[in-house]
Design goal:
Elements (H helix, E strand, L loop, with lengths): L3 E4 L9 H12 L7 E4 L15 H15 L4 E3 L10 H7 L1 E3 L3 E6 L2 E6 L9 H10 L2 H8 L3 H21 L2 H4 L3 H11 L3 E4 L6 E7 L2 E7 L7 E7 L2 E7 L9
Helix pairs in contact: 1-2, 2-3
Length: about 250
């Protein structure tokens, strides 16, 4: 049966081999033969340049390219953790880099896809950081720094983000419904698919007097998570780890 897969928020990191193993298994099994694979951001926990020599990144890139070589198109949208992933990495991994939001056709149904961080407008401090960090000049200057310097900056940002999130309420870090409806109206769709919030669910509401739906993808911290779309419907599915989790 034809199917299209969506995943997000894997947060791959060299200290979590269990997630990397599960993702590689997913690429070599679940994703084989699918019509397309969409990765909606935060594939990696942190990213500081396409020149990163990390063996884990090389392994993931090779598995992605192997899937693409079988004929499966792979599309990528930047997340808030890996928004500096560039054309070099995408090319060597067989991925097509999409803009921050994109309307696609899902078996006759138009759908708006994005990472989802732009929808969290109540987190004012983050939105200010997001605007600054996405500036092309800022990105160029950042990526022009020596690798070790970029590595340290990325690590500092990651640690500050974790500390900040502990102090912010879950409500503030969630999407703003008015922003959801505005983006969907502007795109002319009744279906939105995104990640970022780590709260997998299907939300139903009225838009233009018609039924609308917002589907949130899950993260991969405790299990794999994907959205499977076929001509007959959609379902959020989980995948169990295939190796013991690494704990401190």
């Amino acid at each position: 049966m034809s199917k299209t897969l969506f995943i997000a928020d894997l947060h791959l990191h060299r200290d979590r081999d269990d997630i990397t193993d599960l993702f590689c298994h997913f690429l070599e099994n679940d994703a084989i033969g699918c019509d397309a694979l969409y990765i909606l951001g935060d594939l990696f926990e942190v990213w500081f340049g396409d020149d990163n020599p990390c063996p884990m990144i090389k392994r993931v890139s090779e598995r992605l390219k192997a899937l693409n070589d079988t004929g499966v198109p792979i599309y990528y949208i930047h997340g808030n953790r890996d928004f500096t992933i560039g054309k070099r990495f995408c090319k060597q991994s067989g991925m097509i880099l999409l803009p921050e939001s994109k309307v696609i056709d899902l078996y006759g149904t138009p759908a708006l896809i994005m990472h989802g961080d732009s929808l969290c407008t109540r987190d004012v401090a983050y939105q200010k950081f997001r605007k600054r960090s996405r500036n092309p000049i800022v990105k160029f200057l950042l990526l022009s720094l020596p690798f070790k310097t970029r590595q340290k900056i990325a690590g500092d940002i990651r640690n500050k983000s974790k500390a900040s999130n502990k102090k912010i309420s879950l409500e503030i870090m969630d999407v703003t419904q008015s922003e959801v409806e505005k983006d969907m109206k502007n795109a002319g769709v009744q279906l939105l698919i995104h990640g970022h919030t780590h709260r997998p669910d299907r939300h139903h509401f009225d838009l233009h007097g018609q039924p609308a739906e917002r589907i949130v993808l899950g993260d991969w911290y405790d299990q794999g998570s994907s959205l499977v779309v076929t001509k007959d419907g959609m379902s959020l599915e989980n995948q169990a780890f295939i190796s013991p989790q690494i704990t401190d």
